Amino acid sequence: MKIAVNTRFLLPDQLEGYGYFIHESFRRITQGHPEHEFIFIFDRPYHSKFIYSENITPVIVTPATRHPLLWKWWFDIKIPSVLKKYGADVFVSPDGFCSLNTAVPQCVVVHDLSFLHYPLFIKKSHLFFYKHFTGKFLAKAKSIATVSGFSKKDIIDHYEISENKIDVVFSAAKDIFKPVSPGIKEEIKKQYTEGKEFFLHTGAIHPRKNLENLLKAFSIFKKRQQSSYKLVLAGRLAWKYESFIGKLKTYKFRNDVVFLNYVNEDVLAKLTASAYAMVYPSFFEGFGVPVLEAMQCGVPVITSSDSSMQEIAGDSALYVNPVNFLELAEAMMRLYKDETLRSTLIQKATPVALQYTWDNTAGLLWQSIQKTLL
Length: 374
Known about the structure:
With about 375 residues, the chain is an alpha/beta fold. It is about 45% helix and about 15% strand. The protein has two domains: about 1-170 and about 360-370, Rossmann fold, CATH 3.40.50; about 180-355, Rossmann fold (3-Layer(aba) Sandwich), CATH 3.40.50. The strands form two sheets. It has a seven-stranded parallel β-sheet with strand order 3-2-1-4-5-6-7, with helices on both faces. It has a six-stranded parallel β-sheet with strand order 10-9-8-11-12-13, sandwiched between helices.
């Protein structure tokens, strides 16, 4: 079988959600199925580290897909010709888009429908594209994979898609996210927080991540507890970050907020494992990988209720209404004052985290890919 894969998010030193998902899943799938051929389709020069095995043929299809007009051109004009040239039996697109102009069966991975729930958190041009084409992509796909039961229900609720067409392919966290020694924790704290304990948030600086409410909650925590704790933010500057950065400059406790921008995964894993707690109050996520990363590291989690994160973490995290920064502050103070609670959450999280592995993800995705040929 010849399997073509949209790998445009495999960007060296810039891997985030989609990129990590493709990297971890297809590294396993390609190495585990040497009897099949894989065509990796990039939209710009690629790094050799993403060619995981000899059964992969890399293809660069320009132009780089940087805005909706180029998305349309790339998927509906360029991709069909590549699929025809290489005789692809299946096209897999792990970023929610597919080609509307090919007869080749397609497996599409849809991580979430956040654009429907929080339209103000996305560029207008992108929003129009998503609203206009997502239903068409879902109808065109032979099989659909998504990363949580929460997202599967969301797709069913908003589009006329058969439940049997959608497979839940849970995401996962890398093995490097694991507990570290007390010595490493002290080194990390000395390097980043003047030796102080810290709350951690990881993820892009973006309105959807709810960081302004996190700052409000941290203010209440600092005022009431008179604590030396810091707040560390690790993530790249994404869309509409200017407002948040502006507020941070005049923030009363700005000297207790450490903004690290994007950090490589090795540093991020040590930061996560050294944190007092992960605080992840995102308005909306299809899975919420940072929650699982913290759980694997033996770090308690505060995150959003009524979301995919609640499905993933179960009773091993504290949940808050992300709109209510007072609830978020109370949760931070509860952890600070109650070490028994903190220990209980860590104990509960360990067996839950073990349920999510990239081996399982790759296996489930492979099943969804095979469904396209039935």
